[in-house]
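Quick one: structure tokens for this chain, please?
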Amino acid sequence: MDILKSVYDIFSERGFIEQVTDEELVKELLARESVTCYIGFDPTATSLHIGSLVPIMALSHMQRAGHRPIALVGGGTALIGDPSGKTEMRQILTRDKINRNAEAIRNQLSRYIDFADNKALLLNNADWLAGLNYIEFLRDVGRHFSVNRMLTAESYRMRMETGLNFIEFNYMLLQSYDFYYLSKHHGCAIQMGGNDQWGNIVAGVDLTRRLEGTRVYGVTFPLLTTSQGHKMGKTEKGTLWLDPNLTTPYEYFQYWINTEDADVERFMALFTYLPVEEIREISKLADSEINMAKAVLAFETTKITHGEEEALAAWKASAGAFNLRPVALNLFPSSTIPRHEIKEDVSAIPTYEKSMQEVETIPIAVLFQDVDLCASRGEARRLITQGGAYVNGRQITSIDDKIGMDDLDENREIRLRKGKKKYAIIRVRAS
């Protein structure tokens, strides 16, 4: 374990932390010893989706820092349905359906967490919840819960207007029992989850103390939305799944490469392993360099979920379809994008031949009109003043700028760009 930087420091600097019970004690615990922690995953579908990535990455960081994660598939609690963050009751699934979903999720989590040699545990709470005796459970567990206190939990309060049934009301008891069970049988000291789980986690901390006299802790993560206020992972086609049969690696890659500029640094910190020191450099990037950073984000996230081969294939397909610029060699040197293998596909970019024998320079506005990037010189001037005109990757800042022979590259070409995606190449004939 890195004694200079604990996993709590990693969580803090990467933006994982929302709320913590006994923060100083949690910091101290994670810095001095190996800790077992757990996060629950709801098996209501055959695949997890992008909304599960924050907790998945949190477990991965815990393991990389020398701790032991438990990924708990909620095969038992799914028979009840978690009311957290829901405005209406979830559909009740059959046991067979839940078991099939749980098995699929078990396999999926193995991509992110190493379960070999007991370095992590993959458990299903149906193994201990399904056999509980209801009368004994009420007597031994239910008596420790105050109904008045339960109703103050956000997950219950938001449902009071639309209706909260008795089945859902029991969910907090069952999740609390999970924490107690994992603490007693597996030495689990920390439960983590989304911030909508705060009430359930705190209840589990309290129940474990009452039943076992053991001190355990809770950590929650922020519930993510984009800078535009949109829910993470929602697209025009629907949910963005982690299963390649439901969302292809190419579609997955496209979601990340279309990240809003304002979200790139935050998402890079949460969803990749790139060093924070490098990620912080994103705040200094602009224009085409931000697009390069998005390419790195898309490649790294796709590689983590689908493997490097699929990530590279998605990158090359995107480069061919959208004329992506190659990623600069000095941008995020820790990224594993094989930059030397990735070349810009220019086959779809319109090219123009122009003789510069009679004139030494050409005004930028004239050039953009000549190659049909702008319909008129007036439009070209407006493009320049709005910062949307580029020559060889350099932003043009003055309508008085001119292009000449000094702007040719080694192929005797000049590349023009309008905005983010419209390009033209000028090939200059020798005089």
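The mean pLDDT is 83.
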